[in-house]
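Sequence in, structure out.
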Amino acid sequence: MKLCKLCNDTKNKSETLCMPHKIAQDKLESGYKIWKDRENSMEWEKYLKTLLEIPTTGKLVKQVIIEEIKVYEKNGNKTKN
């Protein structure tokens, strides 16, 4: 049985996240495209940190954000397209 790296719930074989976290990640990425267009190419890290500060950002999205920040910093702060 394969487990989500964020919550230890079961996940699809080809994914690293369970379905709820995968949906949160997809929404986070689609939201970035909108913010990036509106905020003159807002950096990925700034977008993530901004969402962490917003009280209405959901728990699952915040869990994905924390993981994304770790990956971003591990990869030498390379900007997400």
